[in-house]
């Protein structure tokens, strides 16, 4: 019985080997991932779907964050990318950060999302005169540059710097602001639930003394006006901070900031309300235009110039508004 089946399979392969070979090659070409990444126009996410605040309130329009589509290259996608002027192809080493592992990158982006969410809530509270308490504030290392002269590691919680307690990022900055390149500083960190003493030699970066690491905060907040934020595990990064802050403010104060319009924007949010620049602004603008947005809020500076120039080049029918702070974005939307 087994021999008969084997002979039939062998005969079938002999008779159809050309078709099978073409099929195997096609599968490989369609699925094999090459060391290239494609950046393409993304879409928008209605931030109302991410925010829950007590009380009934609904906007007449919508507040939305924009995102970029990033795709790892396959042969068909790369061919299409070469032909599509709105797609950009980059080598893998151009989009990854130094020798950072995929796991470390995912951790960093997740921590940036959480920090951005915390900042959004705090800025919305501060601008709404809402009482709150910060129950806990932890400072973590989320990226270590290849050039950094330190034995700090990604995931370290910084407890002390030069024997001074670190309760927030600013405490660390205050210690090193008067230091010079090549000065040495010491840290006490919590690593794998154990305290360790580590060191760093400060680098000279654009004439300033820097450690060469990225620091993020994890804040625990308590308020009677609780804000619940829900993001999928696949979502990360901090570029939606501005739009998230506007949405939280709108819900807390029951104020419709949209005037019936589809408002799309991008930009990080710092705890003092400063709006920070982001990457991929042209793809985000393209996505907003594709979704027929009325307004695109963008960080002042290079982001705004890039978005403005693209609008003029493509003759987009959308208002592009540059903002440096949450207050500027809020005042503009109120003026609508």
How does this model look, in words?
It is a single chain. The protein is α+β, with helices and mostly antiparallel strands and 336 residues long. It folds into 2 domains: 40-71 and 111-129 and 224-335, Ribosomal Protein S5, domain 2, CATH 3.30.230.10; 133-218, Pdz3 Domain (Roll), CATH 2.30.42.10. Helix content is 36%, strand content 31%. It is built from 9 helices and 19 strands. The protein has a 6-stranded mixed sheet with strand order 4-1-3-15-18-19, sandwiched between helices. The radius of gyration is 25 Å and the shape is globular. The mean pLDDT is 89.
Features:
336 residues, single chain, globular, 19 strands, alpha+beta, 36% helix, Ribosomal Protein S5, domain 2, Pdz3 Domain
- Strand fraction: 25-35%
Beta strand count: 19
CATH topology of the largest domain: Ribosomal Protein S5, domain 2
Q: Mind describing the biggest β-sheet?
A: 6 strands, mixed
Termini separation: 80 Å
What's the level 1 CATH class of the largest domain? Alpha Beta
Give the proportion of residues in helices: 25-40%
Output the helix-strand order: HEEEHEHHEEEEHEEEEEEHEEEHEHEH
Structural class by sheet pairing and helices: alpha+beta
- The number of domains is 2
**Strand arrangement, largest sheet?**
4-1-3-15-18-19
- List low-confidence stretches: none
CATH architecture of the largest domain: 2-Layer Sandwich
**If you average the pLDDT, what whole number results?**
89
Kindly provide the radius of gyration, computed on alpha-carbon positions and rounded to a whole number of angstroms. 25 Å
H/I helix tally = 9
Question: Shape from CA axes?
Answer: globular
């Amino acid at each position: 019985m087994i021999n008969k089946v084997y002979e039939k399979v062998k005969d079938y392969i002999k008779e159809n080997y050309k078709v099978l070979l073409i099929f195997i090659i096609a599968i490989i070409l369609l699925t094999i991932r090459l060391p290239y990444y494609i950046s393409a126009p993304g879409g928008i996410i209605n931030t109302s779907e991410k925010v829950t605040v007590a009380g009934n309130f609904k906007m007449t329009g919508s507040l939305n964050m924009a995102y970029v589509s990033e795709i790892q290259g396959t042969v068909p996608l790369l061919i299409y990318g070469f032909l599509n002027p709105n797609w950009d192809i980059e080598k893998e080493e151009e989009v990854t950060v130094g020798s950072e592992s995929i796991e470390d990158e995912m951790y960093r982006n997740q921590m940036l999302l959480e920090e951005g969410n915390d900042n959004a809530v705090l800025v919305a509270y501060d601008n709404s005169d809402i009482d709150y308490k910060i129950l806990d504030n932890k400072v973590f290392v989320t990226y270590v540059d290849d050039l950094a002269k330190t034995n700090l590691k990604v995931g370290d919680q910084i407890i002390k710097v030069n024997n001074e307690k670190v309760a927030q990022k600013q405490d660390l900055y205050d210690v090193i602001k008067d230091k010079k390149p090549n000065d040495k500083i010491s840290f006490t960190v919590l690593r794998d639930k154990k305290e360790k003493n580590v060191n760093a030699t400060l680098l000279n970066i654009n004439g300033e003394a820097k450690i060469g690491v990225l620091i993020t905060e994890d804040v625990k907040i308590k308020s009677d006006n609780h804000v619940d934020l829900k993001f999928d595990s696949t979502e990360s990064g901090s570029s939606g901070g501005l739009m998230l802050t506007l949405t939280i403010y709108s819900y807390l104060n029951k104020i419709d900031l949209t005037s019936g319009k589809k408002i799309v924007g991008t930009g990080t949010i710092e705890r003092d309300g400063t709006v920070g620049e982001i990457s991929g602004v042209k793809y985000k603008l393209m996505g907003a235009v594709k979704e027929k947005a009325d307004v695109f809020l963008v960080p002042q500076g290079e982001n705004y110039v890039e978005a403005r120039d693209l609008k003029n080049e493509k003759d987009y029918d959308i208002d592009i508004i540059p903002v440096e702070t949450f207050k500027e974005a809020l005042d503009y939307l109120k003026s609508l």
